[in-house]
Write a structure and sequence with these properties.
heterodimer, A: about 400 residues, mainly alpha, MetI-like fold, four-stranded mixed sheet, 16 helices, B: about 270 residues, D-Maltodextrin-Binding Protein, domain 2, globular
C-alpha cells in the first residue's frame, strides 16, 4: 500500500515537473514577445525631430508643416529654395545652434548661453527664409517666429518609406522598405541555393551512399553547423565577395548574392541532417515492397521515401529558412549594408538583423532610434512567424 | 569542498570587479587604451579592463552607470549630455590623444589628392565616377562605418559639414572590414584611422583650402597641417574621480604619450 503510494507520488511529481518546465518555457517565450512589442510600440508617438528639439520658421512663411523627408532634404542642402517644398520664392537659410556664432559674438550669446533664446528669436524674425533647429528650452514665450508642429512617424512612412537614416539630424528617417526587401531577397536566394542542394545531399546520404562513406560524410557535414557565423562572414568577405566581383565584372562584390551564398552554406547542415534523419525512418518494409513491385531505386525515392518523410523534410527547411532570415553576423559582413531597394542580386543590400546588430549598441536606451530597432525586431518576428505558419499549413495538406 | 571553491571564486570575481577600472566605448581608442592599461598594470598601479563597442555604447554605459570611463572618438552629443544631467551624473572630459582620419582608396587608383568639396560630393553621392575628379572612368564605390561609430559622426560633421551620407553608401561593421574591402575593390574609397593605414590601401592627400594638399602622418597631424584630425576623449563621472585619476594621469604623462605614438596615434603636443 505504502509502496504503491510512493510510486504514485513519484509519478505525480515527475508529471508536475514536466508540466512546470513546459509552462515556464512558454511563459518566457511569451514575455520576450511582449517585451519586444512593448518596446517597439512607442515609436509612432515620438517626434522624428529628436527629443526636446523644435523646428521653427519666419512668421511670413506660408508653410505650416514640413514632412520629415523634406526636412532632411532641406538640411542636406538638396533643397535650397522654399519654392521647392511648396512655399514662396525665397532661399532657405539653415540655422542650427552652432551656426549662431556666425551671426552673434560670444558676448551677445552670454557666457552661459542665457541670451540664446532672444538671439534665436531675433534672427528668425529678421531672416524671411530662415529655418531654425534648436532645443525646446531656447524657444521662449515671446518667440517671434513660427514653431512648426511635431511630426510623428506614420505607419505608411514606416513600412513604405524608402530611406533608413535613423541618426539623421534634424529629421530621422525610418523607412524600412529597403530593409524588408533586403532581408527577403537574401533569404530567398539562400533557400533557392540550400534547399535543392541540401535535399540532394540528404537523399544521397540516406539512400545511395554506402555506409562507410556516410560514416565519414555525415560528421563532416554536421561539423559545418558548429562553425561560428562570424567565420562564415569572414570567409565570405575574403573569398566569395572578390569571386563574385570578378565573375560578374562588378564595381563592388558585397552583394545580395554573396549574402545568399554564405547563408545557403550555413543553412545546409541543418537541412541535410534533419531531412536525412527523416528519410532514414522510412520503414524497410515499405521500401522493399516498392522495389518488389518492380519500381526502380529513383521511383522508390520520390514515390515512397520523400512522401513518407515529408514532414521531416519540411521541418529541416523551416529551420534552414529560420536560420537564413535571422542570421546576423555573416550577412553584416558580406552584403555591404547599403540601405537601398534592391533590383538585382548583384547589388548591395541591408537586412533587418544586420541593421539591429549594427545599430542597437549605439542607440541611447528609450530613444526613438532604440524603439525603431525594436519595431524592426517585431517586423522580423512577424515575418518568421508567417513563414513558419505557411510551411506548416502546406505540409499539413500533404499528409497521406 | 565544492562550496569552498565557489565561494573563493565568487570572492575573486568580486575583488576583481571592485578594484578594476572599467573603460568602455570607441573601437578606435581600443588599441590605445588596451596598450595603456597593459603597461599601467605591469607597473602595478592598478587593474583596468577595456571593452569596445563604439563611442555611443560608451556613453550609454556611462549613463547606465555600467562603466567608470567612457572612451570616445567624438565629443559628447547634446542628447547624451542631457541624459547625463537628467541621471544626475556630473562628468569630466579629458583629451587623451589625437587621431587623424585617412581617406583611403585602392592602390591601383590614379587619383592621389582630393579637396573637401570633392570628398563631400563623393560621400553624399553627387560625384559618382572617378573621371569627375581626375581619375579613370570607373564607378566610385563608397565605404563608410556603421552609424554607431564615432568615426562616422566625426567624418559627417567635419568633412560633410553635417550633411547625410548617400543611402547607397556601403556601411561596414569594422575598420578592418573597410581596409579589406577597399584593398579588393578597384573603385573603392573609405575612411579609417591613421593607425590602420597599411600597404594594401593608398592614403590620399587631402586639402580643405584647395591649395595645400597634405598626406596624413603623425607629424602633419601634430602641427595641424593635416585637416582631418580629431581629439580622442575620456569621459568619466566625477564621483569616480579618485578611482580613475591615477590611470588618466598615467595616460597624460610623458610615458603614456609615448605609448600613444607607439600605437599609431598623435600625442598631445607639448
Amino acid at each position: 500500500m505504502n509502496k504503491k503510494f510512493i510510486k504514485k507520488l513519484g509519478e505525480k511529481l515527475i508529471h508536475g515537473l514536466l508540466t512546470l518546465s513546459g509552462s515556464i518555457t512558454s511563459i518566457i517565450v511569451l514575455l520576450i514577445v511582449i517585451f519586444l512589442f512593448k518596446e517597439g510600440a512607442g515609436l509612432f508617438n515620438r517626434s522624428t525631430l529628436g527629443d526636446d528639439m523644435v523646428l521653427a520658421v519666419n512668421k511670413s512663411n506660408p508653410l505650416n508643416k514640413i514632412k520629415a523627408a523634406k526636412v532632411k532634404a532641406i538640411f542636406d542642402q538638396q533643397v535650397t529654395n522654399w519654392k521647392q517644398v511648396g512655399g514662396k520664392n525665397d532661399s532657405i537659410i539653415i540655422i542650427r545652434l552652432e551656426d549662431l556664432s556666425t551671426y552673434y559674438t560670444e558676448e551677445q550669446l552670454g557666457a552661459n548661453l542665457e541670451n540664446v533664446g532672444a538671439c534665436v528669436s531675433k534672427l528668425t524674425d529678421s531672416l524671411s527664409g530662415a529655418v531654425v533647429y534648436v532645443q525646446k528650452k531656447f524657444v521662449t514665450k515671446d518667440f517671434k517666429g513660427k514653431v512648426l508642429p511635431e511630426e510623428h512617424l506614420s505607419l505608411t512612412e514606416f513600412f513604405f518609406g524608402k530611406e533608413w537614416f535613423p541618426t539623421a539630424v534634424p529629421s530621422a528617417q525610418f523607412g524600412i522598405l529597403p530593409l524588408i526587401l533586403g532581408t527577403l531577397w537574401v533569404s530567398l536566394g539562400a533557400i533557392l541555393i540550400a534547399l535543392p542542394l541540401g535535399l540532394g545531399v540528404a537523399i544521397y546520404l540516406a539512400e545511395i551512399a554506402d555506409p562507410r562513406l556516410r560514416g565519414v560524410l555525415k560528421p563532416v557535414i554536421e561539423l559545418l553547423s558548429g562553425i561560428p557565423s562570424v567565420i562564415y562572414g569572414f570567409f565570405g568577405l575574403v573569398v566569395i565577395v572578390p569571386l563574385i566581383q570578378q565573375a560578374f565584372n562588378l564595381p563592388v562584390g558585397e552583394t545580395a548574392l554573396a549574402g545568399s551564398i554564405v547563408l545557403g552554406i550555413m543553412a545546409l547542415p541543418t537541412i541535410i541532417t534533419v531531412a536525412e534523419d527523416a528519410m532514414r525512418t522510412t520503414p524497410r518494409a515499405m521500401k522493399e515492397a516498392s522495389l518488389a513491385l518492380g519500381a526502380t531505386r529513383w521511383q522508390t525515392i520520390y514515390r515512397i521515401i520523400i512522401p513518407y518523410s515529408i514532414s521531416g523534410i519540411t521541418a529541416g527547411a523551416i529551420l534552414g529558412i529560420g536560420r537564413a532570415i535571422g542570421e546576423t553576423m555573416a550577412v553584416l559582413m558580406v552584403t555591404g549594408n547599403a540601405g537601398v531597394i534592391p533590383h538585382t542580386y548583384l547589388q548591395p543590400v541591408r537586412t533587418i538583423p544586420a541593421t539591429i546588430a549594427a545599430e542597437l549598441g549605439e542607440s541611447a536606451q528609450g530613444g526613438i532610434h532604440y524603439q525603431a530597432l525594436f519595431t524592426l525586431g517585431c517586423v522580423l518576428f512577424v515575418i518568421t512567424l508567417l513563414v513558419n505558419l505557411g510551411v506548416e499549413y502546406v505540409s499539413s495538406k500533404r499528409k497521406f | 569542498m565544492k562550496k569552498t571553491i565557489i565561494l573563493v571564486m565568487s570572492l575573486l570575481v568580486l575583488a576583481g570587479g571592485a578594484f578594476a577600472q572599467k573603460i568602455k566605448g570607441s573601437d578606435t581608442m581600443l588599441p590605445l587604451s588596451q596598450k595603456e592599461a597593459e603597461t599601467f598594470q605591469k607597473e602595478g598601479k592598478g587593474r583596468v579592463t577595456v571593452t569596445g563597442g563604439g563611442s555611443g555604447v560608451g556613453f550609454t554605459a556611462l549613463i547606465d552607470g555600467t562603466t567608470e570611463i567612457a572612451q570616445a572618438s567624438r565629443k559628447i552629443k547634446m542628447d547624451e549630455k542631457l541624459k547625463l544631467t537628467e541621471a544626475g551624473i556630473p562628468y569630466k572630459e579629458v583629451i587623451a590623444a589625437y587621431d587623424a582620419l585617412a581617406v583611403v582608396v585602392n592602390p591601383s587608383n590614379g587619383v592621389s589628392e582630393l579637396n573637401r568639396e570633392q570628398l563631400e560630393g563623393i560621400f553624399t553621392g553627387k560625384i559618382k565616377n572617378w573621371s569627375q575628379v581626375g581619375g579613370a572612368n570607373l564607378q566610385i564605390v563608397v565605404y563608410s562605418r556603421e552609424t554607431s561609430s564615432g568615426t562616422y559622426e566625426f567624418f559627417r560633421e567635419h568633412v560633410l559639414k553635417n550633411k547625410n551620407f548617400a543611402s547607397s553608401v556601403l556601411s561596414m561593421p569594422a575598420t578592418g572590414a573597410i581596409i579589406q574591402s577597399v584593398s579588393q575593390t578597384k573603385g573603392a574609397i573609405g575612411y579609417v584611422g591613421l593607425a590602420y593605414v597599411n600597404r594594401e590601401v593608398k592614403a590620399l592627400k587631402v586639402s580643405f583650402d584647395k591649395k595645400n594638399y597634405v598626406a596624413p602622418s603623425v607629424e602633419a597631424a601634430m602641427d595641424k597641417s593635416y585637416p582631418i584630425t580629431r581629439p580622442l576623449y575620456y569621459y568619466y563621472a566625477t564621483k569616480y574621480e579618485a578611482k580613475v585619476k591615477s590611470y588618466i594621469n598615467y595616460v597624460l604623462s610623458p610615458e603614456g604619450q609615448k605609448i600613444v605614438l607607439k600605437v599609431g596615434y598623435v600625442p598631445l603636443s607639448k
